[in-house]
Amino acid sequence: MSNPAFETVESPYTAFRFEVLLNLDNPPAGVTNPICNAAFAECDGLEMTMEPKAIREGGNNQEQIHLMGPVSYSQLTLKRGMTANLQLWNWFAAAGQSGRISTAQGQVTLWDASGRPCISFILTNCLPVKLRGPSLNAKDGQIAIEEMQLVYASLKVKPANGVGSGGQNAGLVSVSGGPGLSGGTAGSGIEGLNIG
Q1: Residue 83 burial (CB count, 10 A)
Q2: Could you tell me the sign of the dihedral formed by the alpha carbons of 99, 128, 132, 74, in that order?
Q3: H/E element holding 95?
Q4: In CATH, what number is assigned to the domain containing residue 139?
Q5: Does residue 22 form part of some domain?
Q6: Is 87 helix (H, G, I), strand (E, B) or coil?
Q7: Is residue 97 very low, low, confident or very high in pLDDT (cuts 50, 70, 90)?
Q8: What's the gap between Cα 171 and its chain centre?
Q9: 10 Å Cβ neighbour count for 13?
Q10: Which end of the chain offers a freer environment for a tag, N or C, measured as fewer CB atoms within 10 Å?
């Protein structure tokens, strides 16, 4: 007889099926939403870190009190095969112009094996900070990969498209507030769905 405790264990998601949507608040010439039709092959940097503040209580030498400190976020690294689509380069160039608002709102959605969106990471006020062209080597015959790094103001995690109980905002995990995702939906830019 099977153990009923194992029947409630959920299988973890795979890391090879995902979608990255970046929608600029004020797109410059040569950039459309979502950027690069959401076609990214790699995404890394969905990370937040809290720096705790340790306080010592007078006369108590055996323990210390930890208080919540400031939260910092990692840089998001996106990689894609380089094509004639130069939207990342146009966005980076526009971000360097003084007086121009070049932030984007982002959504990274993780899909399950059956093709359903499961978890969404919402990134607010993304700004490009590094853009790297492909490493060129005539003897290897590798695909040319371009890489962009972004900083973001906040990171929220929620079930995608109402997956889970309580609807779309059920289980929302947020460390800091910020504007919601502008433009686009989780289903747009499906060309970026990375199916291994």
Answers
A1: 10
A2: positive
A3: helix 87-95
A4: 2.30.110.20
A5: yes
A6: helix
A7: confident
A8: 18
A9: 14
A10: N
Predicted TM-score (pTM) of this structure: 0.74
Residue type, 46: L
Predicted confidence (pLDDT) per residue in 140-192, tens digit: 889 999 999 999 999 999 998 644 333 333 344 434 333 333 333 333 333 33
Give the sign of the dihedral formed by CA 122, CA 124, CA 130, CA 131.
Answer: positive
Q: Which domain holds residue 99?
A: 16-51+67-192
- pLDDT > 90: what percent of the chain? 50
Count CB atoms within 10 A of the CB of residue 23.
21
5 in a domain, yes or no? no
Number of residues in the chain:
196
